[in-house]
Design a protein that fits this description.
Oligomer: single chain
Helix content: 25-40%
Distance between the termini: 35 Å
Shape: globular
Number of helices: 12
Strand order of the largest sheet: 8-7-9-6-10
Low-confidence stretches: 1-49
Structural class: alpha/beta
Strand content: 5-15%
């Protein structure tokens, strides 16, 4: 199991380089020679410019030199660029000559894109993001990188190839103008009180807000499905995703709802009447970065991922509420990490996704939870 202190810094198979066919005999027929040349040319074109990560330099200094020769790195993640820009600026300042091309891409869309690009051997992404249900397919897309060789702590690497970079815990948030702290629910069962019925609660229809039920040994699937059916009977205000579940809380349309800690903190910073409810437990909601097979700029990709795992980058990412936190409940040293401080101030207990089996379980659990909530669409 991984245990990651707050603000602590945190390999795919290489295809053998096929040697170009040579003419062993002058008696080779011209059409055959031309055909082989066409096939070889097409293969090389399809491979793009990506090189295997296994062929990268063994030292960080040589990695930097190669990365500078590559000159650019394409990073894709499901975050607004404004949240990543401070870290981008810091990287480009530290490594002049290497430019980051950032794209805000939804995680499922990124997986679909990379599957097609890797099949066509024309990958356009150097650094990709994985989290939740996209972890399993991402493990198949990720290249093999010896992260320890580049200074990445073992506890910050999941299944060899994914590097833990940030966590955005799922939380329950409330409108401070509509609910007094003394009246707030503190447990999931408290939400079944009739006073929260009739659209007073917003929730994400995809059921990922219930992830902790599949992680906490004291809860479990059977209990969660029974809870979900009772919760659905309360007629909550269901939304397509977590972001849209946050909006009615801020506007006062609902009193309490599912959200992400970064959305709550961003709203608070803008003066919205929202706060984290002391409803526990929840899940840490880890997010990872990896280098896809065939990445066009592998050295720059490894360098960027290494940088984002560093203390300096983590400190900057923390300011936009996108840094690492301990995988399981640990409030011994929140420091100046606003995410950690906020969930600790709310006395939340949280669980991390620590094993591959945990992620495998999600794919069968969520459909069942959605069915219990009445939000499944087949």
């Amino acid at each position: 199991m991984r245990h990651i202190p707050a603000n602590r810094p945190t390999r795919a198979r290489t295809a053998a380089n096929a040697s170009q066919p040579s003419v062993r005999s002058r008696r080779l027929r011209l059409p055959v020679a031309i055909g082989m040349a066409l096939v070889t040319g097409a293969s090389l074109s399809a491979c793009g410019t990506g090189a295997s990560a296994a062929g990268l330099p063994s030292t960080t200094s040589d990695l930097v030199k190669q990365a500078k020769k590559e000159g650019t790195v394409a990073w894709s993640a499901p975050k607004p660029q404004s949240q990543m820009q401070p870290a981008i600026d810091l990287f480009e300042k530290k490594y002049p000559g290497i430019k980051i091309k950032y794209t805000n891409t939804k995680a499922p869309d990124q997986v679909s894109q990379l599957k097609m690009e890797e099949a066509a051997r024309k990958v356009s992404v150097d650094v990709a993001n994985a989290g939740g249900l996209t972890v399993l397919p991402s493990l198949q897309l990720a290249d093999d990188v010896d992260w320890a060789k580049y200074g990445i702590a073992k506890e910050n690497v999941f299944e060899k190839n994914l590097v833990y970079i940030w966590s955005v815990p799922k939380v329950w948030a409330y409108n401070t103008d509509k609910v007094k702290p003394a009246d707030l629910p503190k447990t999931w069962d408290d939400l079944l009180d009739p006073k929260w019925s009739g659209g007073k609660v917003s929730a994400e229809s995809r059921a990922s807000f219930m992830t902790v039920w599949d992680l906490d040994p004291s809860l479990g699937e059977a209990k969660s499905l029974a809870w979900a059916e009772k919760f659905a009977a309360q007629k909550p205000h269901f939304t397509p995703n977590t972001t849209q579940s946050e909006a009615p809380i801020e506007s006062g349309q609902v009193s309490i709802g599912t959200s992400l800690i970064n959305l709550v903190l961003q709203a608070q910073k803008k003066g919205a009447p929202v706060a984290v409810a002391p409803l526990s437990p929840t899940n840490a909601n880890e997010s990872y970065l990896y280098v896809p097979k065939g990445a066009p700029h592998p050295a720059a990709a490894v360098l960027l991922t290494r940088f984002l795992s560093s203390d300096a980058a983590q400190s900057v990412l923390a300011k936009t509420y996108n840094s690492r936190i301990p995988v399981d409940t640990d409030c011994s040293d929140p420091g100046d990490n606003a995410v950690l401080k906020s969930i600790c101030d709310a006395h939340l207990k949280w669980f991390g996704t620590k094993t591959l089996d945990d992620y495998k379980s999600f794919s069968s659990y969520f459909p069942k939870a959605e069915k219990a909530l009445g939000t499944d669409v087949g």
